[in-house]
Amino acid sequence: GAGVSQSPSNKVTEKGKDVELRCDPISGHTALYWYRQSLGQGLEFLIYFQGNSAPDKSGLPSDRFSAERTGGSVSTLTIQRTQQEDSAVYLCASSPPRTRTDTQYFGPGTRLTVL
Amino acid sequence: QKEVEQDPGPLSVPEGAIVSLNCTYSNSAFQYFMWYRQYSRKGPELLMYTYSSGNKEDGRFTAQVDKSSKYISLFIRDSQPSDSATYLCAINTGGFKTIFGAGTRLFVKA
Questions:
Q1: What tens digit of pLDDT does each residue of A1-53 get?
Q2: A-chain residues near B8 (CB < 8 A)
Q3: Which of A56, B39, B98, B106 has its CA 20 to 30 A from that of B47?
Q4: Are B94 and A100 inside 8 Å of each other by CB?
Q5: A50/B96 touch (CB, cutoff 8 Å), yes or no
Q6: Residue A39 to residue B97: CA distance in whole angstroms
Q7: What is the pLDDT of residues B51-108, one digit of tens each?
Q8: How many CB atoms lie within 10 A of CB A64?
Protein backbone atom coordinates (compact mmCIF):
# COMPACT_ATOMS: atom_id res chain seq x y z
CA GLY A 1 0.00 0.00 0.00
CA ALA A 2 0.95 3.65 -0.18
CA GLY A 3 3.40 4.95 2.38
CA VAL A 4 3.70 8.38 3.94
CA SER A 5 4.06 11.06 1.29
CA GLN A 6 5.42 14.57 1.67
CA SER A 7 5.43 17.54 -0.63
CA PRO A 8 7.31 19.33 -1.91
CA SER A 9 10.42 17.15 -1.88
CA ASN A 10 12.61 20.25 -2.09
CA LYS A 11 11.86 23.86 -1.25
CA VAL A 12 14.18 26.81 -1.70
CA THR A 13 12.97 30.08 -0.26
CA GLU A 14 14.28 33.47 0.67
CA LYS A 15 14.78 34.60 4.22
CA GLY A 16 11.61 36.15 5.59
CA LYS A 17 9.19 34.24 3.39
CA ASP A 18 6.56 31.82 4.71
CA VAL A 19 6.56 28.14 3.69
CA GLU A 20 4.05 25.33 3.95
CA LEU A 21 5.07 21.69 4.04
CA ARG A 22 2.51 18.94 3.51
CA CYS A 23 2.28 15.40 4.87
CA ASP A 24 -0.13 12.65 3.79
CA PRO A 25 0.01 9.85 6.38
CA ILE A 26 -0.78 6.20 5.80
CA SER A 27 -4.53 5.65 5.69
CA GLY A 28 -5.88 4.57 9.07
CA HIS A 29 -2.90 5.82 11.05
CA THR A 30 -4.09 7.92 13.94
CA ALA A 31 -0.77 9.35 15.10
CA LEU A 32 1.27 11.85 13.11
CA TYR A 33 4.65 13.36 13.95
CA TRP A 34 6.79 16.12 12.52
CA TYR A 35 10.56 16.08 12.98
CA ARG A 36 13.43 18.23 11.84
CA GLN A 37 16.75 16.68 10.82
CA SER A 38 19.80 18.88 10.44
CA LEU A 39 23.16 17.70 9.15
CA GLY A 40 24.86 15.58 11.79
CA GLN A 41 21.95 15.94 14.19
CA GLY A 42 19.37 13.45 15.29
CA LEU A 43 15.71 13.80 14.60
CA GLU A 44 14.42 16.79 16.51
CA PHE A 45 10.80 16.27 17.59
CA LEU A 46 8.52 19.16 16.61
CA ILE A 47 4.86 18.22 17.10
CA TYR A 48 2.62 15.18 17.64
CA PHE A 49 -1.00 14.62 16.69
CA GLN A 50 -3.05 11.71 18.04
CA GLY A 51 -6.57 11.31 16.70
CA ASN A 52 -8.80 14.20 17.69
CA SER A 53 -6.79 15.08 20.81
CA ALA A 54 -5.04 18.40 21.22
CA PRO A 55 -1.58 18.18 19.64
CA ASP A 56 1.61 18.14 21.67
CA LYS A 57 3.48 21.19 20.45
CA SER A 58 6.28 21.01 23.00
CA GLY A 59 8.98 20.59 20.36
CA LEU A 60 8.19 23.60 18.20
CA PRO A 61 11.30 25.84 18.40
CA SER A 62 9.52 29.18 18.14
CA ASP A 63 6.14 30.75 17.51
CA ARG A 64 7.07 31.02 13.83
CA PHE A 65 6.32 27.31 13.57
CA SER A 66 2.80 25.94 13.54
CA ALA A 67 1.07 22.82 12.30
CA GLU A 68 -2.43 21.62 11.74
CA ARG A 69 -4.04 18.35 10.86
CA THR A 70 -7.32 18.43 9.03
CA GLY A 71 -9.89 15.67 9.33
CA GLY A 72 -7.45 13.49 11.20
CA SER A 73 -5.46 12.92 8.03
CA VAL A 74 -3.38 15.42 6.05
CA SER A 75 -1.08 17.70 8.02
CA THR A 76 0.57 20.99 7.11
CA LEU A 77 3.63 22.43 8.85
CA THR A 78 3.93 26.18 8.38
CA ILE A 79 7.06 28.20 9.02
CA GLN A 80 6.58 31.95 9.00
CA ARG A 81 9.31 34.50 8.33
CA THR A 82 11.85 31.79 7.57
CA GLN A 83 15.40 32.16 8.84
CA GLN A 84 18.59 30.53 7.53
CA GLU A 85 18.76 28.32 10.62
CA ASP A 86 15.44 26.77 9.55
CA SER A 87 17.27 25.03 6.69
CA ALA A 88 16.93 21.30 7.32
CA VAL A 89 15.04 18.19 6.23
CA TYR A 90 11.55 18.10 7.66
CA LEU A 91 10.28 14.57 8.16
CA CYS A 92 6.76 13.42 8.80
CA ALA A 93 5.88 10.06 10.30
CA SER A 94 2.65 8.26 11.12
CA SER A 95 1.74 5.37 13.40
CA PRO A 96 -1.22 3.01 13.53
CA PRO A 97 -3.60 3.07 16.50
CA ARG A 98 -1.70 2.61 19.72
CA THR A 99 0.69 -0.31 19.68
CA ARG A 100 3.29 -1.09 22.29
CA THR A 101 6.14 -0.51 19.87
CA ASP A 102 4.81 2.82 18.62
CA THR A 103 6.48 2.05 15.29
CA GLN A 104 6.72 5.12 13.13
CA TYR A 105 6.55 5.08 9.36
CA PHE A 106 8.43 7.96 7.82
CA GLY A 107 7.94 9.89 4.64
CA PRO A 108 10.90 10.86 2.41
CA GLY A 109 11.08 14.35 3.87
CA THR A 110 11.07 17.88 2.53
CA ARG A 111 14.49 19.47 2.14
CA LEU A 112 14.13 23.16 3.00
CA THR A 113 16.82 25.63 2.03
CA VAL A 114 16.51 29.22 3.22
CA LEU A 115 18.76 31.62 1.32
CA GLN B 1 23.94 15.66 28.59
CA LYS B 2 21.87 14.35 25.70
CA GLU B 3 19.36 11.63 26.49
CA VAL B 4 20.84 9.45 23.76
CA GLU B 5 24.45 9.57 22.59
CA GLN B 6 25.55 8.03 19.31
CA ASP B 7 28.87 8.33 17.52
CA PRO B 8 28.14 9.92 14.11
CA GLY B 9 31.04 8.13 12.41
CA PRO B 10 31.52 7.74 9.54
CA LEU B 11 32.35 4.07 9.88
CA SER B 12 33.94 2.42 6.86
CA VAL B 13 34.32 -1.37 6.66
CA PRO B 14 35.12 -3.91 3.93
CA GLU B 15 32.40 -6.15 2.59
CA GLY B 16 31.88 -9.21 4.79
CA ALA B 17 33.00 -7.52 7.99
CA ILE B 18 31.05 -7.61 11.26
CA VAL B 19 29.77 -4.15 12.11
CA SER B 20 29.05 -2.95 15.63
CA LEU B 21 26.96 0.19 16.14
CA ASN B 22 26.31 1.55 19.61
CA CYS B 23 24.34 4.06 21.65
CA THR B 24 24.27 5.04 25.28
CA TYR B 25 21.34 6.59 27.07
CA SER B 26 20.81 8.32 30.37
CA ASN B 27 17.23 7.63 31.51
CA SER B 28 16.67 4.24 33.12
CA ALA B 29 12.92 4.56 32.45
CA PHE B 30 13.41 3.78 28.79
CA GLN B 31 11.99 0.36 27.94
CA TYR B 32 11.67 0.20 24.17
CA PHE B 33 14.76 0.23 22.00
CA MET B 34 14.76 0.49 18.26
CA TRP B 35 17.14 0.80 15.37
CA TYR B 36 16.16 2.68 12.23
CA ARG B 37 18.02 2.60 8.93
CA GLN B 38 18.05 5.68 6.71
CA TYR B 39 19.29 5.63 3.14
CA SER B 40 20.44 8.86 1.54
CA ARG B 41 17.56 11.23 0.79
CA LYS B 42 15.02 8.81 2.26
CA GLY B 43 13.10 8.70 5.53
CA PRO B 44 14.19 6.34 8.32
CA GLU B 45 12.68 2.84 8.37
CA LEU B 46 12.38 0.56 11.37
CA LEU B 47 14.99 -2.19 11.29
CA MET B 48 14.90 -3.78 14.74
CA TYR B 49 12.87 -3.39 17.91
CA THR B 50 13.67 -4.75 21.39
CA TYR B 51 11.76 -4.52 24.61
CA SER B 52 13.81 -4.34 27.83
CA SER B 53 17.13 -6.16 28.07
CA GLY B 54 18.42 -9.00 25.97
CA ASN B 55 19.19 -9.89 22.40
CA LYS B 56 17.05 -10.09 19.31
CA GLU B 57 18.19 -11.58 16.03
CA ASP B 58 16.79 -11.07 12.54
CA GLY B 59 18.83 -12.55 9.74
CA ARG B 60 22.21 -10.81 9.65
CA PHE B 61 21.14 -8.27 12.27
CA THR B 62 21.31 -8.62 16.05
CA ALA B 63 20.08 -5.97 18.48
CA GLN B 64 21.41 -6.07 22.03
CA VAL B 65 20.26 -4.12 25.07
CA ASP B 66 22.14 -3.88 28.37
CA LYS B 67 19.92 -1.87 30.70
CA SER B 68 22.37 -2.10 33.59
CA SER B 69 24.94 -0.19 31.52
CA LYS B 70 22.36 1.84 29.58
CA TYR B 71 24.01 0.62 26.38
CA ILE B 72 22.43 -0.64 23.17
CA SER B 73 24.10 -2.21 20.17
CA LEU B 74 23.32 -3.31 16.65
CA PHE B 75 25.52 -5.95 15.03
CA ILE B 76 25.54 -6.60 11.32
CA ARG B 77 27.14 -9.84 10.17
CA ASP B 78 28.52 -10.38 6.67
CA SER B 79 28.03 -6.72 5.85
CA GLN B 80 27.08 -5.85 2.28
CA PRO B 81 27.47 -2.66 0.23
CA SER B 82 23.67 -2.40 0.37
CA ASP B 83 23.96 -1.95 4.14
CA SER B 84 25.61 1.43 3.54
CA ALA B 85 23.27 3.88 5.24
CA THR B 86 22.83 5.90 8.40
CA TYR B 87 21.70 3.90 11.42
CA LEU B 88 19.76 5.69 14.13
CA CYS B 89 19.10 4.26 17.55
CA ALA B 90 15.77 5.24 19.11
CA ILE B 91 14.42 4.80 22.59
CA ASN B 92 11.00 5.18 24.14
CA THR B 93 9.50 5.00 27.62
CA GLY B 94 6.22 3.59 26.30
CA GLY B 95 4.68 6.97 25.68
CA PHE B 96 4.41 8.77 22.37
CA LYS B 97 7.77 10.51 22.41
CA THR B 98 10.67 8.60 20.87
CA ILE B 99 14.17 9.96 21.32
CA PHE B 100 16.49 9.43 18.37
CA GLY B 101 20.26 9.34 18.33
CA ALA B 102 22.19 11.46 15.85
CA GLY B 103 22.82 8.44 13.62
CA THR B 104 26.00 6.65 12.54
CA ARG B 105 26.94 6.76 8.88
CA LEU B 106 28.12 3.35 7.68
CA PHE B 107 29.98 2.68 4.45
CA VAL B 108 30.53 -0.93 3.36
CA LYS B 109 33.15 -1.13 0.62
CA ALA B 110 32.92 -3.83 -2.07
A1: 589 999 999 999 999 999 999 999 999 898 999 999 998 678 999 999 988 88
A2: 40
A3: A56
A4: yes
A5: yes
A6: 22
A7: 878 899 999 999 999 999 999 999 999 999 999 999 999 998 777 788 999 999 999 9
A8: 14
